[in-house]
Amino acid sequence: MSSKILIIGACGQIGTELTTKLRELHGVDNVIASDINTRKLELVNSGPFVILDAKNFNAIKDCCINHNIDTIYLMAALLSATGEKYPMEAWDLNMNSLFHVLNLAKSGQIKKVFWPSSIAVFGPTTPRENTPQHTICEPTTVYGITKQVGERWCQYYHDKYGVDVRSIRYPGIISHKAMPGGGTTDYAVEIYHEAIKEGKYESFLSEDTNLPMMFMDDAINATTQIMAAPAEDLTIRSSYNLSAISFTPEEIADSIKAEMPEFKMTYKPDFRQAIADSWPSSIDDSVARKDWNWSHDFDLKKMTSEMLTQLKKKYQS
Length: 317
Ligand code: AKB
Hints:
With about 325 residues, the chain is α/β, with parallel strands linked by helices.
């Protein structure tokens, strides 16, 4: 029998594509998409959709009962840049939504949980290169603090109550279907849109800021793979390091110039520079590769080619 899945935060950058993939895998009617509003009409009309506030425990519980949900993907969150503007809102949403879902799993209402963590759990005291799975985590952003604390709660609920919660530390995710909202790595998505629309882009990070990144297809594969892995293979119940590529704004600009020689890049770092400077530049994800056979497919060249092809279709059709 297929799982009955609820995606909370389905209209976001990752949620949008995760919904499509999970519907392919489990059947449209077995995947209930939900979000706080109906901002993405295409997604709302593509299958079962409910309006759901991730901070409302009773609403999530009722939805699970009404739709016989056994698995939740909790994708709603305020990201790093927005979290610095609205610290208490970030804490409230990111922590309470996680507790609601973990408590539903603890009570037996649902059987499995996916909750994304982030490279934001790391901070300036973390080794920057090839950051190990187990290392110093002293995040300096509210978002990073919520993810770090959330990881500890995931581990706790697994160890004390047997909750089957699975998590990965996403790097910056690059995609062409839905825009990211409020992250520090968002420049690496905006740049492709502006390249096609305007032929130029002003980066809010400096040219040599090297950050871990990943194309959306790889992120979605990682997410479905960890959820399909046998429970006994998973040695990490806080959150797995996950890695694909690292590049700087200058390197991504060069990869665009290789296809669009007239593309112009300028740099005007803002408050997000300090956030980026506190994060690693590359990640050691050998534990994920060993435990559940994770591997990535897209390098920078392949990703740039795919992004430009898809966005040309979008803007020039
Ligand atoms: C952000 O930039 O805040 C996110 C992340 C790395 O978790 N994309």
